[in-house]
Design brief:
Number of domains: 1
Distance between the termini: 29 Å
Number of helices: 2
Strand content: over 45%
CATH architecture: Beta Barrel
Structural class: mainly beta
Oligomer: single chain
Radius of gyration: 14 Å
Length: about 120
């Protein structure tokens, strides 16, 4: 298994302007993390600050908001973390589930899945 990278488009909250970004798919990340500067330039507002558990076991506050994204041909609103400029961009599990996608780590790609109701 290796790192799965994807290119998505991130838009303003109205969905009228989009920018392409390459992200690492991270099923351990709840929300998609994007550079705070880019989000502010797109007019994305911070809705709240929440505690976030990091891989090293520490907890830190993060700002989250919502905006439009295009993933694998689907356009929808999703929550985003305002990440620092030196932090990697991550495609989180909430965005994956909203797009009805899962990770195929063997082939390094996203694959469609059905919605679940259990």
């Amino acid at each position: 298994m290796g790192t799965v990278m994807v290119t998505i488009e991130v838009g303003d909250p109205q969905g009228s302007e989009f920018r392409e970004v390459e992200l690492t798919v991270d099923t351990g990340s709840t929300f998609t993390a994007l550079p705070a500067r880019m989000l502010r330039e797109l007019g994305v507002k911070v809705d709240e600050t929440v505690p976030s558990d990091l891989a090293d076991g520490t907890t830190t506050p993060v700002d989250i908001g919502w905006t439009m994204v295009k993933v694998e041909g689907k356009t929808f609103p999703t929550n985003v973390i305002f990440a620092g400029e030196n932090e990697p961009g991550l495609l989180g599990v909430v965005t994956l589930e909203q797009a009805l996608l899962a990770v195929d780590p063997i082939h390094g790609r996203l694959v469609p899945v059905n919605a679940r109701r259990y």
